Please model this.
Amino acid sequence: MEKIKSFLKRKDIEISAKRYGIDALGAMAQGLFASLLIGTILATLGEQLGIELLVTIGGYAKSATGAAMAVAIGYALHCPPLVLFSLVAVGGAANTLGGAGGPLAVLFVTIFAAEFGKAVSKETKIDIIVTPFVTIMVGCILAFVFAPAIGSAASAVGNAIMWATELQPFFMGIIISVVVGIALTLPISSAAICAALSLTGLAGGAAVAGCCANMIGFAVLSFRENKWGGLFAQGIGTSMLQMGNIVRNPKIWMPVILTSAITGPIATCIFKLQMNGAAVASGMGTCGLVGQIGVYTGWVNDIAAGTKAAITAFDWMGLIFISFLLPGVLAWAFGLFFRKIGWIKENDLKLDL
Model:
């Protein structure tokens, strides 16, 4: 047993929830962002502006989705170069075979392929052949065997959530908004979760609401402590910056959680806000305005598909209210109450910016 532990340590193979559930998952979201999401934005811009070159470039970016995710995961797992480069083929295979649930298939398959590749890396004199051979063979065989099932399972869960949201938009609006909003602020990836489950439609709209409630909510809630720097860092950056403060005083999270519980059902029941763009955007909120761009690209897709006549003023009003106005106003109001009763004290929300 000691020899195995020593070997794993030497190979930097760490079997832990943090390495796989936080580091790898978060990296996967970045890979998605750098391929599918950016590709979708570029293609949409090209279509709207009539620039064919942008459409073509966007298509190339989207076609690299599986490879980008796999390489990002491999980077998070500290893979040596030959293993990292070999994961391009693994990611492409897993994403293709996983179908709608491709991102989740890529995550699982790439983790195994990467760790097997690391295990054999530099163990033979023909490392340049052995390492990529083992990495690609393990990854692709696992993709053939498991990716379709993993993809189908993820897709089924996502479809069930979306079906439940259509059936019970009020209660599911609350649940999805709160849960995805919490995931956004925790050191895990809400974007990767939404992508893995292909969370779009009304459920995607509720997810956007929850993410915006946390980001804009914390930005406004902590304005007196962090001023404009904190407003922009959290409002278009990430509410994860507050994680250290939350650990010290979990009560500071209450205003934005309550805000997400209100904006979620408003998004689903009143504005009928839907995310029909890339599913990864459902978990991005106002980070770089990716959530809002995703909603807009969804509108464009719906118009092109003939399921939506046009983008209306009510659509824009709903997006602005859910993304910015309601989170800011509600979090500020709840914050005043919690400060008054002593749950939030001076500098509880202070960031080191």
Q: What stands out?
A: The first helix runs from residue 2 to 10. The mean pLDDT is 92. The CA atoms of residues 271 and 315 lie 7 Å apart. The chain is about 75% helix and 0% strand.
